[in-house]
Design a protein that fits this description.
The complex is a heterodimer of chains A (about 500) and B (about 325).
Chain A lengths: L1 H22 E6 L14 H7 L8 E3 L5 E3 L2 E6 L5 E6 L13 H12 L14 E8 L2 E6 L6 H4 L16 H4 L7 E7 L3 E6 L13 E6 L3 H10 L4 E5 L1 H7 L5 E7 L3 E6 L9 H10 L2 H8 L4 E3 L24 H10 L6 E7 L3 H15 L3 E7 L2 H9 L5 E6 L5 H9 L13 H10 L5 H18 L2 E14 L2 E2 L16 E2 L2
Parallel strand pairs in A: 1-10, 15-16, 15-17
Antiparallel strand pairs in A: 2-3, 4-5, 5-7, 6-7, 8-9, 9-10, 11-18, 12-18, 13-17, 13-18, 14-18, 19-20
Helix pairs in contact in A: 8-10, 9-11, 13-14, 14-15
Chain B lengths: L1 H29 L4 H6 L7 H11 L5 H13 L13 H36 L4 H15 L2 H15 L15 H35 L2 H8 L4 H29 L3 H7 L4 H11 L2 H29 L1 H4 L1
Classes of the chains: A alpha+beta (about 500), B mainly alpha (about 325).
Chain lengths: ~500, ~325
Amino acid sequence: MARLSFRALLLAGVLMAGSASAQVLEVAVDASPVGLDPHRATAFSTFQMINGTIYEGLTAIDKDLRVRPGIAESWTVSADGKTYTFKIRAGMTFHDGSKVEAADVVATINRVLSKDIASPLASRLAALDTATAPDANTVVLQLKEPTAPLLVSIATIAIVPRSMETEKEALQRAPIGTGPFKFKEWQANGFVALEKHAGYWRQGAPKLDGIKFNIVPESATRQVGLSSGQYSMLPNIDAATAMQLKGRPGVKLAETLELAYMFVGVNTSKPPFDNVKVRQAVNYALNRQEVIAAALFGAGVPGGPLSPALKDWATPVEQFACYKHDPARAQALLREAGHTAPVAITINVLPRQDIRDMAQVVQAQLNKAGFRVELKNQELGQFIQDWRNSNFDMFASTNAGSPDPDDYFFRTFRTGGSTNVFKYSNTELDGLLDGARTLQDQAARKAAYDKAQAILACDGPIMHIAYGQLFTAMRANVNGFEIIANRSLSTLADTTAGR
Amino acid sequence: MLRRLLLARLVDLAVVLVAVSVIVFAMIRLIPGDAVAIMLGANTEVTPAAIAALRAQIGLDQPIYVQYFGWISKVLQGDLGTSLWTGKPVAGEIAAHVWPTVQLTVLALVIGAGLAVPAGCLMARWRGGGADAAMRVATVAGLTIPSFWLGIVMILVLATVAPSLQLLGYVPFSVDPVGNITRLALPAFALGLPILANLSRLVRSAMLDALGQDYIRTARAKGVPERGVVYRHALRNALIPFVTSVGIMTGYLLGGAIVVEQVFAIPGLGRLILGAIAERNYPLLQATILMVTLGFVVVNFVVDLLYLAIDPRVRA
């Protein structure tokens, strides 16, 4: 009898496992989300779980990093570039069943701007004057001044029901969006489970019945889980992990060039990097190909201030004089700057393996060109604190990048920009950036950003080093997934996991 | 005597808990970078005003002693606070994470301590023989192999040999009993092996010590069979250090077999603590450490009671 019931249990277990693997995509990620409120939790661990899966914005970013319609099926821009009118898609519902109307969009914008919610996304709406809903399907955004990057900036502002406008905690643990998947369960440190949103607006999507984001902190465990088939996808992994998984039976890789870049940044408010010649010397001292070979297993390309993935914008690196590896020139520049002895500097290093590898190569290269470099490996909290307080000579890190040049340049390099921790100030650049965001014409914008890239490449506070390849590893039976350079997993809506 | 013992233990418990509460509260705040910085990440467009607003919401802008007394007075009223990230009550978070750890602890102890007694007794009986020597070598191996390494190797081997087995993660027993046991078997074994090695050596030496005592000679002289000598007379006396060790190890295991939970992706207390530190989730970390400390002290209290059962002299 005992044996019989054990068999029944075993059978039940097998059946459950079988039905679960048929339509629910088992994804393994390395970290728990820091909450699921799209306006409050902006760390990457949250972004990759919610963007385009649970939540959608008025606009969306496609796999080619171009703007496409989201909740708004169309929009018009007034001739002076200050009035944006969006048409809300008819027949959309939130996961709680309520209809999506213009009032929800206005409430969302008010929520992001509210002092009480204190959303870090508020700065994206800095140019906004008023948001109004003349009728149930129309939203009008009135800007204080023309702001061309608006359509990109709002793509990642998730639209939530108007009932959430003043709600602070609820979305953190029970998100409600309009995306193809709705939230089902969050077992802390275990998994976040999503299920199909039956009322999703796009016909035939999603194809999966659900997604389970398993939180698996140990890299070796994630890899074994994918090889054995317990997990079907490891999204957004680095080259080192991808190379280990390459060629394993039943595993395939998708790859794209990253928007994110590896770099070293310097403090321009104090010696030695207040002198532009010392900053140029760093550029000449760097051998970017060598860094790519050592830290990225060759899977990457040298890049300037904009990712080569942004084909409409990026200036080819061959056009930057200081990108030619020339240690003698670096030493000459240091002498011109008045340094006779090796220049002693400390590099704060972000605690991530590829960045540590990069920092060691950079240290060796700079030491050969007239610097004396000490590396400081830091714990994440300490690193962020020093970064925010501009408490560094130089730091080695990585940045996410953005599909529109203004988004990144303005906050990072404009005098007083919100993430200008370098205390960089260049009146010519400020003029270019202020002017470019008011331009509507693509050719005119490009001309302005070409000039900005030329200034930033050699004289700026960031020495851009490399853009790596970004990988997603999947089981061979996973189809329809497209990797996007901004690390959004929105194409899971069109993904299938056949047997 | 019994009442005095209980009272003394209760006083100990209170002192330990107060000391731990102060230490944890101060330590987590000594680590640079606070909850707000981690929540916003390093690369987002964040204004100093937004940071200040969030800090004020969480109460981080107040002096540390105000924060401490605010927290401890709530704890004394039974309110452990809410998690900074999810807004969920901390008590619920701990309850959700305690079962995987308790299950893992019990299974590891069953494997480790359960097998250690017979293994130690046999080693003592066969003292000096080839079997004793072989088992002693095996225990040294068991002591020196780290659990997490053993865990990774076992995962790799089983993933190759039997790729269809679901080995990683955790499902509650009530949802899928078979899946629950197959997932916990490997981590419990990885954790239990060093305990088995450690405790069987301890039982062996305690048994050898006991077997050399006068009362054993007396027992043998009056014709008690050898099994009775070993298991009734010697073992009972040898068990006291064994019980102490089991108590301490239980405490450690309850604190979370952090690395093993990490390797096998088990959402237990160890992961909760580690995550809370990484996120600077102050209320969650403080309460979890306090509860683990409480568990440790309670287990040791139970061990004291077990002495009473094993050794009548303590009762006198």
